[in-house]
Amino acid sequence: MLIVMSRDATEEQISDVIRTVESYGFKARPIPGGERTSIGVLFNQGAVDESLFLTLPGVKQTIAVTKPYKLVSREFHPEDTLIRIGDVVIGGDSLVIMGGPCAVESEEQVMTIARHVKAAGGDILRGGAFKPRTSPYAFHGMGEEGLKILAKAREAYGLPIVTEVMDLDCFDMVEAYADIVQIGTRNMQNFSLLRRAGESKKPVLLKRGMSATVDEWLMAAEYIMTEGNTEVILCERGVRTFVRHSRNTLDLSAVPVVRRESHLPVIVDPSHAAGYRDQVMPLARAAAAVSAHGLMIEVHHAPETAKCDGGQSLLPGQFEILCRQVRGIFDLSR
Amino acid sequence: MLIVMSRDATEEQISDVIRTVESYGFKARPIPGGERTSIGVLFNQGAVDESLFLTLPGVKQTIAVTKPYKLVSREFHPEDTLIRIGDVVIGGDSLVIMGGPCAVESEEQVMTIARHVKAAGGDILRGGAFKPRTSPYAFHGMGEEGLKILAKAREAYGLPIVTEVMDLDCFDMVEAYADIVQIGTRNMQNFSLLRRAGESKKPVLLKRGMSATVDEWLMAAEYIMTEGNTEVILCERGVRTFVRHSRNTLDLSAVPVVRRESHLPVIVDPSHAAGYRDQVMPLARAAAAVSAHGLMIEVHHAPETAKCDGGQSLLPGQFEILCRQVRGIFDLSR
Amino acid sequence: MLIVMSRDATEEQISDVIRTVESYGFKARPIPGGERTSIGVLFNQGAVDESLFLTLPGVKQTIAVTKPYKLVSREFHPEDTLIRIGDVVIGGDSLVIMGGPCAVESEEQVMTIARHVKAAGGDILRGGAFKPRTSPYAFHGMGEEGLKILAKAREAYGLPIVTEVMDLDCFDMVEAYADIVQIGTRNMQNFSLLRRAGESKKPVLLKRGMSATVDEWLMAAEYIMTEGNTEVILCERGVRTFVRHSRNTLDLSAVPVVRRESHLPVIVDPSHAAGYRDQVMPLARAAAAVSAHGLMIEVHHAPETAKCDGGQSLLPGQFEILCRQVRGIFDLSR
Amino acid sequence: MLIVMSRDATEEQISDVIRTVESYGFKARPIPGGERTSIGVLFNQGAVDESLFLTLPGVKQTIAVTKPYKLVSREFHPEDTLIRIGDVVIGGDSLVIMGGPCAVESEEQVMTIARHVKAAGGDILRGGAFKPRTSPYAFHGMGEEGLKILAKAREAYGLPIVTEVMDLDCFDMVEAYADIVQIGTRNMQNFSLLRRAGESKKPVLLKRGMSATVDEWLMAAEYIMTEGNTEVILCERGVRTFVRHSRNTLDLSAVPVVRRESHLPVIVDPSHAAGYRDQVMPLARAAAAVSAHGLMIEVHHAPETAKCDGGQSLLPGQFEILCRQVRGIFDLSR
Lengths: 334, 334, 334, 334
Known about the structure:
The structure is a homotetramer of 334-residue chains.
Chain A: E1 2-5, H1 11-23, E2 27-32, E3 37-42, E4 59-63, E5 83-85, E6 88-90, E7 96-100, H2 107-120, E8 124-126, H3 144-157, E9 161-165, H4 171-177, E10 180-183, H5 191-198, E11 204-207, H6 214-226, E12 232-236, H7 254-261, E13 266-268, H8 270-274, H9 277-289, E14 294-298, H10 316-332
Parallel strand pairs in A: 7-8, 7-14, 8-9, 9-10, 10-11, 11-12, 12-13, 13-14
Antiparallel strand pairs in A: 1-3, 1-4, 2-3, 5-6
Helix pairs in contact in A: 2-3, 2-10, 5-6, 9-10
């Protein structure tokens, strides 16, 4: 941290700040400048709370220098993390495509969609059995019955499954069925859930919060990693902005930033970012073009009857075209 | 919901949309206009999923009409909800002031601050025993020991206590000690926690999510109310915007909007919105000026040693001035 | 427009609203529903001011239906607008690439960069002679001397030039030299400048404002078109959000939305969206993947000495790779 | 500026950065830390372009330290600037209230409203003769005829007038009639207009841009001041956020921030922030509570017939109550 003093700060005020810094066990290094003095705070572990210094007399501003994350950072672990689920490798040189319905609605529905996903060349089957919904009156998923259906589809088509865990209560159950446990946007800072995920032996797919900075998102992954689970997949899914023509604004620059800052794989969910089917295909292609490690796409064979998010689900034929396009684009983008 | 057809939609497309609307059990009412036809969707209960219609041929746009909430709405329950905790009434004609430290750090700390809060005319003591923190390396609260300290302060100074519940695991314990159970910003859409809060006999203070719309916030309150708990206090605490000079941007227009839309009381937390002490006092006065039902203010007698949020905590002397100012402003604002 | 009445609105209030609507020369069509009545406002030309009705007794809400733009809309003009500048066609089946420095700094600089742009397969040369800068102390461009340098580069390399006009005073001069007149982000709602651009015989490149909705952006284009200039190129360049890892957040979903709503071509400027060189290449590829009609890229052979935006300028070698990648991706994306 | 090196930056990379810094005439001061080295850039005048250093090998991050503004800063000019217009003083110890219609529509309209503004205790009359409007089809103001009407109202009621200038072309005319020349939100970064305002002998009211940071806003004021005009009044009017229940989100924390950073007076326009009449009164009170130096309020005696912004205009009776409330609150807030 850098503490910037006012132009008219006195020598005494500067000494007081230095004394305060050192009272916390840090080292203070004054940096006299042309117009004003700044004071570097050294030998801190992790980020320092700026509020400790901000209100001392003569202090104009504090500036964070150290990034708050450690285990997730590329400085700490330079090589890319590869996550293997059966034959699928996430974080390597091929684009991993996850497809499936928003919610598990019936065995027939999941089997039909899984067949299409497999045929189109998808790698992993997605589908929710526990659905966090804005309204208490909406459909909240089939629960364990839904998980069993997903497991059947896995067996039938050889597709690993990724499915969402909603709370501590259902974690054990979801973990038992899933190949990848998904933590949703609204739970990105549910720290108890993150800690529980950190104790899991299953890889965790961590969606970015609706208004989370990349730092906060990586810190959420840090929570999981501090408990011992090193297999975290980050998933960009759009952030909330003033824009109204899409449900969220897909922040694709987050992909190169995460790839530079962290060794963890990062994928993109264009379906939730868009909210409208006609935006999903272009945004999915864009995600491949920024070299995301994977895509998560909602697919439904009869979206007009879907119990959730039908309007953003691709039809099987669209999904097939998409798979072809994005694999080509991913290869061109290296 | 209103379904707006394209200017060049055919008669057949219009009929198809009408048929589809009716297939869901709603009533469709076509509204021919100068340039285009719209179709009203009637007799729905709650909001209709726009994605059911948005992709039908000839449809240009769908427009939501019905608000998604019921129990929280003023249309459903016209009179203001009053919440009584001992002698304190939240939602009525006086401004309720909650003050205290961000986190419980020690008995001496809480007792000192509680004494100041009481002396300044505060109504309720705040303080966290379970702290959700962005970093896994930060201080996470004293747990049950902290709750016991709060209970002692309650006895000593006659101040009811409000304290945060972090997850399902600690709910019973927090509920046993607290007079008001607080659900934090990051948990506003932790739906399992909301349902559990709905089963509680204690009033619930529900903070607005960092990027939640008022509709989403009221829907979170609706989750609590559908489980039977009618005592929900809404708390505006700033939203995330592009602005960088404050931690969040306090959205004070939310107060008159909530007061018009809902019968529930709405208070304001200027401390977390500001993030900097010198902004807290003006924003607290502003909250009284928009006729919020209460304020939640961080107070610390030695903020430079606080384990969290010291930089935004008021000193006891500032809190005392504040209490005087805001009560005067609240009375002038009617 | 739809006027939604309160659940408890009286018959008399409904009649009053209808009378008011008709007093403005519109037609009112009441739509009785299950819970409440709505009133459609018909035969308006363009959008109706909601504030005319919002405060009438019994009115709960007003909802806009008609889009405010006409000339720019695809409903009005279904075929794509093609803009021809010499051999280059913007809006058709090939991706148009504009490259060049942020600012014209010297003849040698422009000539060097233009040579690289041409060699890499760029179509149009960009470069600013009049630079709007946040600081009055920054470099503001070479003015007419800069325009003459651009004209020389056009002659030498056969590249049409696009350059920014800053105000009414310099419009005639810029127009005389430029093949495409650019209106910058900060001038998107400089309505006097838009009207002047509407009288020009040159195509206009209209950048989206930093926090403009697509509707506002299209309305700015409508200003130009109402004065008679039908050759408007829209340019997405990122919007301002809470995100801090890039200068702006590139809103790529705007591209399919504009392509659906309007017949005008839409291009993307990833350089200003990113602000950092290592994000420019992935975002440029992403723009090609969403089927933008073109790209505008900052290129500099010695970015460390550039007088503006050096940090986001690609090196010639990077630009060459980029041209190859984006043309491949654009073709794969159809 | 502080240049932060990667943890694994080599000695040579550090030396290269130092050499580059010094090649620009700055002084470089290395600050070895526990984990990494940072390099302070000293003796720069104004802000340094980070892109000069960001892409050098081994550089992780650059951090701005110096604020980019000078003339507007309180460090440069510690005393509050007072702006006198006749008997009215802006920036001192009383709250200055500006009221009037959005647009001048007729002599009778302005005279009626001016009489109400005067009677309620308003200090200054507002009203637009040149109206920047999102739509080319909307009412754009009466032009010079409107200015003449304002001048008549000034004579009749002894109220100074503030009115908006839209472009360079109408500046002389507006300047001749106005007591305060207003630069609107959409023109905050119309740098040619700012320079022209800097040459004016009239005080300038500078509205904050819809998504401008406080730094950018102060830099716009710096443009005016560099040309010699020291009388700039800053006006907060809400920023664009994801929030939809108000037209903009009023950023009241900007007021204490501007008061700390700058010597210039800062007022608040709650009418444009709110967009809805029922939010204007609470937000106006809130503005007084944060110690803004003044308020700008839209007032109309017949808002249902207003040619613009009728829905956010207060009725004369409301304005009268407001004046009383805000003056009381302003006094309580000191």
